[in-house]
Structure formats: structure tokens, C-alpha cells
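Researcher: Good morning. I'm working through a list of sequences from a screen, and I'd like to move beyond sequence-only analysis. For each chain I'm collecting a predicted structure so we can compare shapes side by side. This is the next one on the list. No need for commentary yet; just the structure.
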Amino acid sequence: MSGERLEGQVAIVTGGGRGLGRAMVLDLVAAGARVITTASRQATEIEAVARDVGNDRVVPILADVTREEDCARVVAMARDRFGRLDMLVNNAGRGMKYVSDRFLTEPTRFWETDPDVWRMVIDTNVNGPFLMARAAAQLMIAAGRGRIVNITMNHATMRRRGFSPYGPSKAALESETIIWAQDLDGTGVTVNGLLPGGATATGMIPDGLPQEVRTGLLDPAIIVPPLLWLASDASDGVTGRRLDASRWRGELSGAEAARAAMDDAGWAIA
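Model: Good morning. C-alpha cells for this chain:
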């Protein structure tokens, strides 16, 4: 774990019951933060995370990020219970296994995708972060400080054959990151993307994956050190960037590790 300390901070992590979300919740708490975490359908996993922590530093709440009123309710809980909101991590998402369990070996062409599945993925991965950020930004702007972190993925995967609608949804989230960072310029609120840097052992991976492929998956904990750095005062002024956790070097100082892992969000402009 990074050495960053976050005593007194309050974070919201959407989709915190498993995978990347669970890893981020546990280590934010270990660094001193209090965390509100959400699940959209069943609270079992996020309640288990709260029990694992064993104190009142994790607040689980059933909330659907595609519903404006649910997003407002989550942010209101941070305000009413803790009096502040320092960080929003837009982690909740839906992946390719909703299109097909065989998406890694038998790509589904876009015209073969069920339109209802397409809408569900776009609604969760694009509209969900917008609704959460819209609710959180107002509280953060009033405080003069805040961090919005959008969990994204490799550019290559955004362009990968057979990865509709997941790839397009994350490309849209990348664009949201760039535009929101500009919109919030001068407010003290930053917006950055964060990605593990490769296929990761999360609930988005189908159960039937061959063992030789599964052994190559990244550990979700890989995302923790750059996340804690983004949450800290050391990242003041860093906005509109993307950090690749697979390029983070723990032997370096936080600033040096961040430089090694960081690029501008979006794509190069000729």
C-alpha cells in the first residue's frame, strides 16, 4: 500500500463490493478515509466489505448509478453524515460478459448485440458517472476542493474488435474526463482517469476462462497506489490526466511514480 495518509477524508466508491472497487474501498479505509460504497441490485457484497473493515468507516448503500435520485441520495449521505466529500470514484460498470460469456474467444459483432444490453452498458458506464459527478461536483465546488476519478481502460481495448458496447462506453468516459476537467478548472476540483493497465481478475471476467489465461490476470490491488496518490494533497493541480497502474513503480517517490504512470487523458491531437 502507498504511504499516503487520508485522515478525515470522505470518499464515495461506486460498485465497491468486488474486484477493483473492493480493493479501493479497503485501502482507502486503511489510509484513514471513510468510504460510502454502492451496489445497484444486492447489498450482500458491500455489506460484507463493511463487516471486513469491522468499524463504521464503510457505509454500504444500495443505489443505482443510472438513477438521478439515487446518485443525489448517495452524495447527500456524505454531506449529512460526514459533512464533506473529498473524492468520488466512478467504478461501477458493466462489461462484455453481458453481451456474451465467450467475448474473449468468440468476438460478437456489433449488429449481433442485443440493443437492450447495449443501452444497459452505456447507461451504467457513461450516464452513471455523469449523474454521480453532477451530484458530487456541486458539493466539492462549494468546498473548494475535490477529486473525481473515472475508472477507465487501455486505449487498445477501446478499439478492440468485438468489444461493443464496452469499448465505446469507456471511450466516452475518457471524453467525459477531459471535458469535465476543463469545466472544473479553477474550482479546486480535479478529474482524472485511472486504469489497471490490463485484464484484471474482477467480476467482469467470465467464469469459464481457461486457467492459462486466468493466471495472467492482474490483481485488483494494482490500482490502489495511484488511487491513494490521487486522493492526497500531492496530486493538487493534476487534472485531465490518466494514470496506468501497471506503470506505477513502488520504489519511486509518489511524484516520480505518478510521472511514470501518467499521460494526458484522451488521444493525441495532430
